[in-house]
Amino acid sequence: MSLPHLSFYSAFILSSLGLAFHRTHLISALLCLESMMLSMYIALSIWPVENQATSFALMPILMLAFSACEAGTGLAMLVASTRTHGSDHLHNLNLLQC
Asked: Which of 3, 56, 88, 89 could form a cystine bridge with 26, CB 3.0-4.6 A?
């Protein structure tokens, strides 16, 4: 396994572990999701170059578009939950209390 593969695999694993274990604030969960998307974007950008596959060259652009939509939705949820609940703590957000 080469060094670039190891680096984005470890970045994805570390961000998923951060999402699993540090679930106190919504902003930390959003940052972990964005780092997962960034590592997937880097992986999808390197893969067509290594395999000389021009048909998959559009995949990183689509991934970046979906990542931007996910970031905008997450920030809108952060602002809405902060306005209604007063903080961004995840333990305050309960689906049964809606």
From this structure: 88
